[in-house]
Amino acid sequence: MHKVYLANSDTAFDVSEGETILAAAQRQGLNLPFGCQSGTCGACRAQVTQGRVETLGEPPALSPAEREAGFTLSCLARPMGEVHLDLHLPGAFATLRPQLWPARVIGKCWLAHDVIGLSLRLPQSERPLRWLAGQYLDVLTDDGARRSFSIANASGSELIELHLRVVPGGRFANWVAHDMPLRTILRFEAPLGAFFIRGDTRRPMVFMAGGTGLAPLRAMLQECVQRGETRPMTLFWGARAQRDLYCDAELRELSERCPSLRYVPVLSEPDADWHGARGWVHEEVLRQVPDIAGHELYMSGPPPMIEAGKRAFTEAGLDPARMYYDSFEYAYRTFPVANAP
Ligand SMILES: Cc1cc2nc3c(=O)[nH]c(=O)nc-3n(C[C@H](O)[C@H](O)[C@H](O)COP(=O)(O)OP(=O)(O)OC[C@H]3O[C@@H](n4cnc5c(N)ncnc54)[C@H](O)[C@@H]3O)c2cc1C
Ligand code: FES
């Protein structure tokens, strides 16, 4: 039996021999962030500040730089003695336990040729769903599968907005786009994940999205604007062509309203009349923010973009502890922990 202490809290818990840190935390009713439970998504990333852990295998979610900086994945880590972990979580996280929720689909529209927007109305409740901007939900489908989608708006509303990419062969998104009637009730688990703004520094923030990776960043930016954030913020949004920039007008308007926000769309296959930035979005970030090491970085979108970003920004000197991300992995088998309300 080994003791694990969590930084910036009074929480300590026991981990049995052979047990992972996440499994032990869940067994004892603690709310630690997680996703895939298989080393792929990085949602359970934690920094070992004292002691040693054994991380099973070579999980893809941990880059060499993250390993070097002492990060592990609690879903695969076993303590080798007493361990102190820093999860880099705000105090509010502990109170936001994932639960099962029903919600009615009250709006559905094509935002771009392959992106559908959904609006879900939450049930009236004395304890309404709250989330940290950037978190996601898992829709539970009738056949027992799960599909993860980021919540695209800030908390505090009775509506949840989602941006779903509709790809050929994508089962859930195609059903939503072509067959699901309005007023359908969807069931989901929320709030999930550890992708949200850390307010503990005054560093300027860079946001980098690829495609529908914009969804959680849109929620974060809405929240920043609502609370009058004064830290400089730059949003880089990578897409193929102009028709993929499905929130372009809204983001331009937001950046005009908020003097500390700059918005840079970046196209990898630009139209002939495009005068903006072109190429890979992470390369444009480094072109425009060569001092990235002094920033805090939030990125979300396709796994190859996240991998490329992690590599490039680490080489440019950014501490992995200042890099937060949600990698939009395709559906994997996840394991529910929620208790129905
Ligand atoms: C934390 C998290 C948050 C996410 N947030 C969002 C979000 O806000 N919006 C969003 O659109 N997606 C998001 N995703 C990705 C989404 O969960 C997956 O793409 C999911 O598989 C889509 O379900 P589906 O049933 O439509 O497709 P599936 O039936 O699961 O996919 C079938 C096949 O289609 C291909 N495929 C599926 N999705 C994609 C894709 N996006 N790009 C290219 N090929 C694909 C794959 O080959 C896959 O095997 C998120 C993923 C994670 C882990
Ligand atoms: S990497 Fe641990 S939960 Fe996904």
TrEMBL record:
Domain 2Fe-2S ferredoxin-type, residue spans: 2-93
Cofactor (UniProt): [2Fe-2S] cluster
SUPFAM superfamilies in the cross-refs: 2Fe-2S ferredoxin-like (SSF54292), Ferredoxin reductase-like, C-terminal NADP-linked domain (SSF52343), Riboflavin synthase domain-like (SSF63380)
Bilayer-crossing regions: none
Residues annotated as domain FAD-binding FR-type: 98-198
InterPro entries with a match to the protein in the record: 2Fe-2S_ferredoxin-like_sf, 2Fe-2S_ferredoxin-type, 2Fe2S_fd_BS, Beta-grasp_dom_sf, Cbr1-like_FAD-bd_dom, FAD-bd_FR_type, Flavoprot_Pyr_Nucl_cyt_Rdtase, FNR_nucleotide-bd
One Pfam family hit: Fer2
Superkingdom to which the source organism belongs: Bacteria
Name recorded for this polypeptide: 2Fe-2S iron-sulfur cluster-binding protein
